[in-house]
Structure prediction request, 124 residues.
Amino acid sequence: MFANDAPIIRLSDRAAEHIRALIERGDSDVLGVRVGIKTAGCSGMKYHVEYAKEKKPFEDSISEKGVTVFIDPAAVMFLIGSEMDWQDETFASGFVFHNPNEVARCGCGESFSVDAGAHSKKKD
Prediction:
C-alpha cells in the first residue's frame, strides 16, 4: 500500500468478475493473477497479466472484490493509481488499464509509455 493506504491499482467490477472466472478455470493452486509490465511495442511498455500460484519476494498484492492481484515489483511505479478493467468487444476482449501515469500510447493501443520521473517529483 502507498500514501493514504490507497491500493496500487483498483479493480472494476468487470475485471474482478473475469479474474474470478479465470481462477475457477485455472489449476487448483492458482491464488490470483499477477500484473506486470513488459518491454514491447512502439511506445515501449505493455501490460502483462498471468496466473499467480505464489507470492514472489518483494511483491505487493491487493485483495479486492473477492480476488487477489499480485503486482510485479518492477511494475509498481508504472501502475500507481491505475484501474484494471475488462473490456468485451466484438473482435477483441481483454484487460485494459486506465493509467493516469501514461503520457503516450501507440496507435494500435498495444503499448504505452509513462513519465517515470512523475512520482519522484510529487511531494507526499
The radius of gyration is 15 Å. The first helix runs from residue 13 to 25. DSSP finds three helices and nine strands in the chain. Confidence is low (pLDDT under 50) at residues 118-124.
